[in-house]
Specification:
alpha/beta, Diphtheria Toxin Repressor, domain 2, 2 domains, two-stranded antiparallel sheet, 16% strand, globular
Amino acid sequence: MRTAVLSLAIASLLPVVSVAAPKNIIYMIGDGMGPSYVAAYRYYQHNPADATVANTVYDDLLTGMASTYPDDETLVTDSAAAATALATGIKSFNGAIAVNRQHIPIGTMMQLAKRLGKANGIVASSQVNHATPAAFLAHSSSRRNMNDIADMYLDYRINGKPVADLIFGGGTDYFVRDDRNLVQGFTELGYQYTDDYRQLSTLTRLPAMALLAESGLPAVLNSDNDGMLAPLTEKALQLLSPAKQGFVLMVEGSQIDWCGHDNDIACAMAEMNDFAKAISVARAYVDANPDTLLIVTADHETGGLSLGAHGVYQWRPDVIKKVKATGREIVKQLQQLQDPQQISERYTALTGITLEQAQLQLLLSALQNTDDKVARSQVLRFISDASFTGWTSGGHTAADVQVMAYGKNADEFKGFMDNTSIAKKLIRYIQHAQ
């Protein structure tokens, strides 16, 4: 692959930053987290006994909004193009991993940080070579080249070393393969490694790598853990903090998007809660380390979520709070049963919703379909209908997304901006924090 266009060259085209640059940057991306998700989470967290609805951490940090359109006529971005914009300050086509429309690699802020001696890392609840983290560390004309992207994490070197000093998330299927063991390659370069969440304490220094699932991390709603993103973020900050020249950390709440694609509101709220706790960890770090900037945004909105549906002026988070598993897990459990009464009772146990006979017949018919999507859609439609949750799509939309900032230079992120403007400012900070 052709040598990446240096971020230094990109940054030279950017407006001059008029304030002192922060030493550390924490960049948090809620994949698919459009404005309705933030509003939904506020009401989801609300205690009905309280007279007013309290702000969440998302509300407290809100400073502006950003557009997300890609470099084509569609106006609706995918995660790869959006992440490319957020990592490089340059728009590209859907599917692009830090390459431009001519498929020429574009330098990323993580690569720039590495060249300038700053530590950097990624944390994701997806596989770590998924579209968003990939756009910060690698280059590919297609996000689907996931083995090639994983290879690049090890093979692409700056000053003789891989770009990322810290890699936390899922993805052992891509890093320990029959044709190549990338984990072995990383450990031979001195990376501490674990594939066991309970063994995070064994990671005591950089470089470090934790791959904690075959693909993405377990969905919060299906897990015994009350979310893994906050502990992973805390561990990442602990390991990056001693870096003398500062660090850049990207944390992605990856599975908010996955829930949106499924139109699974309970799943989405659980992942939003996981991401909120990780943001709170980062905010506390900024409070203790004032020379740090925290930026939180989204790459796009997923699903066309609306709070209220069917012309009814109502949205019911109390219904959503009773759901104990994702739609995928509910279908998996129901498919193990044969008796209609057992299926009905199990559905009620997992969702809090008692099915009428006509609804049960719809569910039984859907479960017989060979395509799991049919059963999942039916399972989740009952939850959406009962909570008056609306969806317009199983894909992304062109809705603007929120921008949140806290710490040093947070005022520079007020108002409306394009997603590329966020990256351009951060790239400038990385240059000037020397």
